[in-house]
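To whoever is on call:

I kicked off a structure prediction for a single chain this morning and the downstream step that reads the tokens threw a length-mismatch warning. I double-checked the sequence; it's 631 residues and nothing unusual in it as far as I can see. Pasting both halves so you can look.
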Amino acid sequence: MTEGFDPPPSICRRKSFFRYFESLIDPFQSLNPTFNAKSYKSLIKALFKNNKAAFLTAFLSTIMLSASEVYVVQLSGTLIDLLTSSPHNIGNEDHEKLKHFIITLVIILIILRPATKAFNLLLINQSLSLRISMAVRWHLYKRTLTNPMSFFSSYHSGYLVSTLWQAGQAYSELVVIFLQSLLSGLSFFILSSLVMTKINPAYFIPLFLWLTCYLTLARIQIPKIQNSARRAAIRSNKLNGKMVDVISRILIVKLFNGEKNDKNYMRLAFQKFITKSSRYARTVSTMEFLMVILSSCTLLFVSIITVWLWNANAITGGEAAIVFGLIYRSESLFTQLMGQLTSMQRAAALLTDSIKTLSVSATSSVKAKQEAQAFDRVPTIELCDIHLRYKNKFVFKGLNLTIAPGEKIGIIGASGSGKSTLFRLLLALQEPDSGTIKINGEPIERIAENCLRSTIGLVCQEGLLFNQTVASNILYGLPDGNLDSVLGFLGPCQQGGNQEWAKAKGAARTAIPLDSVVGEQGSCLSGGQRQRINIARTLLAEHKVILLDEATSALDTLSEGDIIQLLSEHLKEKTVIMASHRVETLKWMDRIIILKEGKIVQSGTYEDLIENNRYREILKDIDLPGKENQR
């Protein structure tokens, strides 16, 4: 909107009118349902309980709308009887009836029916559909984040995102279809049946048979539709996940001509989805065809009864018009309803699969952890007799390690010796097969996750970044952070650690503007820049224990030396555990341990290990990168 332009008051009132209905439901509402991971019904109950007033009002307005539709048809029949009773000359009494009839018709058609429809649409579209679907997504998103790391290793990230997003869409479809189709159609049929039965009880028989056959057919066919819909929904999410996987790694696709040679990956995924969707479509087509046959038989039966009653002078022409208007409208609604029921089954299957997939944490040990306050001092860390297997191979075999508060520990070992796995254990991202990890004497499985995360921080080798600005990445998870504090950490990191270095080399050479977007997975930055941002983010969080997993591997020797100097100054009072392939990087450690075959085979200071001939033999055996530089 142009600056200085004030919208007309009518537009402001219209926006406020919509905002009122949009504010009835909080999309970030708190839900605490302990629902079955295989069912969506308890989630529906929880949302209904939180938003009972909006749901009940929508139910009532839908029923009122159906009642107004039935009454309009009834009025049309009354008008036919009124006009046919005195076709050429309307007397005063009939004139008065006609006048009252027209007034009633105007009130129903011009005022009550549009007002009820508008109110119903605003409740469903502005309140229930959008806001409730976002509440489902928000709730499942928070639950997904509590799942263990093994869960995220088992699925494509694109599959999880697609599953989460479609869960909200499925819930929205369930609400809209239930209110606008199922409840509306059933209300219209019940009210129509009452009116037709009141006209003549003979209509009860075809209506009862119609409803009975309809429900029987639905009971037989709907489970088949639900199963095929669930399989199609799962295959759809997997296909979306694979597409995200390919697009996010577009460089590999381009380098290996994947857009032409990708026959065994995406083409197969598309084919599997088409196969599952075709089976679902066949089931739907079969059911809808059977419903057409059923409704056609019902229409014929009702038509025969109506003609017979009219010939017997049991009903008037206006009543016959009412019957035909109601039965044809009911048939149209039932035909649409069957298609909507299949959509509901697909949405229910999709929502069930989403909850089952994303809610792993409901049965994990995470929920059993006791809440605890953050440690007020640097803790002691103990690893006692840790055993861990991976694919029938020992990663750790009786590992024992005690780290005193403020101690600096360096870890070296061959690739696959367990350095990164040790960090995952300390962060409770992975559990050992046996043994105990204690933080200040407390078993790690009994420490609340938020307490553990605020105590132990990790700088990993990959340089994990969001596609946001540099400042946003550093401030992530730090609500009290500010740009001034970011500059205090990021500036020295960018400049190599000290003002003398900055003056000698020029700060602009490696400076990263705080408002610059880093790109997908930090693609706009170098590996060293990504690691510097990661270091700044971890230092800003003020963790008491810092884990450095090859945190400076992407830096050149000169930059790494300055970063190490900066780290040693900032982390004097903190516990540091640093894994590196460069032994020189660990010179500032109080103690260096060497991992081999799941055990600590050597431990000591940098000087002790260099002077020890056994250390050289171990280095030779595990073939550490860069060992030539140390000989």
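Update from on-call: the warning came from a stale cache, not from the record. Cleared it. Sanity check on the structure: The domain at 38-358 is CATH 1.20.1560.10 (ABC transporter transmembrane region fold).
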